[in-house]
Specification:
This protein is of the alpha/beta class. It has helices spanning about 25-35, 50-70, 80-95, 110-120, 140-145, 170-180, 240, 250-285, 315-325, 345, 350-355, 370-390, 390-395; strands at about 15, 75-80, 100-105, 125-130, 150-155, 185, 205-210, 220-225, 290-295, 305-310, 325, 360. Helix 6 links the parallel strand 5 and strand 6.
């Protein structure tokens, strides 16, 4: 039952912005508190309190390694996904051999990757930004064709943070391995949501973040395959294999480790739970007229739903949803203050108008089918009301019609 305030406003709270951040699990929080209030030693100290903290870090390192099938010694703890992306890209670029001054990436990467590549362009590097198709997929053949003798690194995300499309990283990794070029993937959105086997996928560097999988903000990790040489990006100590100077955030690292261990243990059940709700939400939203699914229909994250509502601004939809207790987004949380259309949706061939009318709903482990029903039941009146107010709808006549089939051409009823 939905509770209502005296003003008649629905007070049910439905959080559908889990791609932006997740609620810290109770098990994670409890473990972190212990290392803030009891076992608070510096892991570099040789006394027992320091050794206890160091041992907890190594347990966390083993849990993160287990999640992606690597050696614990290949995990470097960072402050989050952005720092890990920077360490991977700048670290490889600045340690590359003479003449290796070319980077390959895609047009739909997270800004932590794109802005880092743009920085390198101002420091003697050239960058190839590969296009994507209408579903947001990078063509592995395009990666092969773009590699030159000067290529120092290929960095292609595992799954897109806005539309949820899962990239063919195993094929891309095999191409890079055959060419002798290091391959980095940003797996911030996919880690803990879908299986990742770094060995099978030929990945040399991988980024993940705790707060996307029910851990704390301010903690992340970079997998660095043994033999890959990086230039440290901050200096001051021998921490983290001399790659990340500074006293470690032990509570955050412990939290990341607990979250990673739980994610590994519960992955099949979590994936099935999310995917069933995702499909119900997609089917329900696409029954509304003049809507379009963004991203691949099936090759997408199990929690990600991104839909464009023609002739309506996404911000208007978000405000209307917020009034009924539903939290969603228009794309990347890092770009929420931007008035520009999503660079991801534009790269996929969407018009500015359709890109501006998109919203992203990302499910989490706490969501239940009743949450999906609540949103679907109320979206119709919201969209109808906003279209009546929109001059764009009057011009295009989009108040009638049927849902689009989606960019892949499949009937639309992964992140």
């Amino acid at each position: 039952m939905v509770n209502r305030s005296p003003e008649g406003m629905a007070t049910r709270q439905v959080y559908l912005d889990n791609a932006a951040t997740t609620r810290v699990r109770q098990e994670v929080a409890q473990a972190m508190v212990t290392f803030m209030t009891q076992n608070y030693g510096n892991p570099s100290s040789i006394h027992s309190a320091g050794r206890t903290a160091k041992e907890a870090m190594e347990v966390a390192r083993a849990n993160v390694a287990r999640l992606i099938n690597v050696r614990p010694s290949e995990i470097i703890f960072t402050s989050g996904g952005t720092e890990a992306d920077n360490l991977a890209i700048l670290g490889v670029a600045r340690r590359a051999a003479a003449g290796k001054n070319h980077i390959i990436t895609s047009q739909i990467e997270h800004h932590a990757v794109l802005h880092t590549c743009e920085y390198l362009e101002g420091h003697g590097f050239t960058v190839t930004y590969l296009p994507v198709d209408a579903d947001g997929l990078v063509d592995p053949a395009a990666v092969r064709q773009a590699i030159t003798p000067h290529t120092a690194l290929v960095t292609i995300m595992h799954a897109n943070n806005e539309v949820g499309t899962i990239e063919p990283v195993e094929e891309i990794g095999a191409i890079c391995r055959a060419a002798g070029v290091p391959f980095h993937t940003d797996a911030v959105q996919s880690a803990g949501k879908i299986p990742i086997d770094v060995q099978a996928m030929n990945i040399d560097l991988l980024t993940l973040s705790a707060h996307k999988m029910y851990g704390p903000k301010g903690a992340g990790a970079l997998y660095v395959r043994r033999g890959i040489r990086l230039e440290p990006q901050q200096h001051g100590g021998a921490h983290e294999r001399k790659l990340r100077a500074g006293t470690e955030n032990v509570p955050g690292i412990v939290g990341l480790g607990v979250a990673a261990g739980l994610a590994a243990d519960e992955l099949p059940a979590t994936q099935a739970h999310l995917q069933s709700m995702r499909d119900a939400l997609i089917d329900g939203l696409l029954r509304l007229p003049n809507t379009k699914l963004n991203g691949h229909r099936t090759q997408r994250l199990p929690h990600n739903v991104n839909v464009s509502f023609r002739d309506i601004e996404g911000e208007s939809i978000l405000l209307a949803l917020d009034m009924i207790g539903v939290a969603a987004s228009t794309g990347s949380a890092c770009s929420s203050g931007s008035l520009s259309p999503s660079h991801v949706l534009l790269a996929m061939g969407n018009t500015h108008q359709d890109a501006q009318g998109s919203i992203r709903m990302t499910l989490g482990r706490d969501n239940q089918p009743a949450d999906v029903e609540y949103v679907v039941d109320r979206m119709g009146p919201i969209i109808a009301r906003l279209r009546m107010m929109s001059p764009l709808a009057d011009a295009s006549g989009s108040g009638t019609g049927v849902a689009d089939s989606g960019p892949s051409g499949k009937s639309c009823g992964k992140a």
